[in-house]
Amino acid sequence: MLHIKSLEEGLNIFKALGSEIRVEIIKILLKSDGMNMNELAQHLKITNGALTSHIRKLEEAGLISVVNETASHGNQKKCSVLLDKILIDFEPQTENANIFNASVKVGHYSDFQVTPTCGLASATNMIGEMDDVRYFAHPDHYEADILWFTQGYVEYMIPNFIPPAQKIDQIAISMEICSEAPSFNPNWPSDISFYLNDVKIGSWISPGDFGDVPGTFTPTWWLSSLNQYGLLKFLVINDKGTFIDGKQISDVGIRSFNLTSQSLLRLKLAVEKDAKHVGGLTIFGKNFGNYSQDIDVQISYSAIEG
After folding, report:
1. Structural domain ending residue among the three candidates 39, 59, 83
2. Helix (H), strand (E) at residue 238
3. What number of CA atoms fall less than 13 Å from residue 85's CA on the CB side?
4. What local confidence, expressed as pLDDT, does residue 80 receive?
5. Where is the domain boundary, 58, 83, 108?
6. Mean pLDDT for the chain?
7. I want to staple 230 with a disulfide (CB 3.0 to 4.6 A). Which of 63, 141, 175, 178 is the partner?
8. DSSP state of 221
9. Domain that holds residue 60
10. Which residues are registered as beta bridge partners of 231?
11. What's the distance, CA 168 to chain centroid?
12. The whole model's pTM is what?
């Protein structure tokens, strides 16, 4: 998912989609789960030369990826859609001094309980052995830029350094996540639950575990048979409830926690054993996947009345 925070920021994407034929290209690629250039040109009944300019505009806007694939008749360029969703803020973003931003590295969890398949890796190498739970307690886990497990949880301490005598009005968290299938499987649903200070604030069904094309930031040493990227999700808890990508997933609101500058914030991501879809969880850091970020947190706060 791509979050566009202003109309100006999304100008290149709007231009790329300002063509009926380019919109049709996106629809075809979504329906076919990717297609090479020759097939796409034939499907659209246009020349390869005419198609190339449209593909270039979509690729420059970050809407699709184009990778070379070896086929029986030589190399072919396969096109695939990169984004599952675009969220646009039409209201202008105002400068707010009452915001604290923090970033939590994927490996900086404070507690865990996981079951295989599972594992961790840094930007340069695997951490221990895959499917050996013991390595989640290895000192090197702090260097992890990707982790995965089938069932269980990881818990993070969210930094809270807002000024004294302030209360927390909203917590917004963005992270790249997906399911965890053996190898990868785009049709592998998983119920991923979110907890704040041991209170369940909602859950989201991940549609699958993705590895059809290399992740934009996934290192080259990473095996192509493993998952490559996830989906960027925005988790927000405020006075109206808890939301994923703007869609409400529960009525649990921030006020029920009475959070202040002195409060500890513990975020737990879990796949519960009694869930309908026990399809695992993968969390991507800034050196894996399609988004160069870790678990990013934004805390909005205001003065405590009285």
Report:
1. 83
2. strand 231-238
3. 13
4. 87
5. 83
6. 91
7. 178
8. T
9. 2-83
10. 177
11. 24
12. 0.75
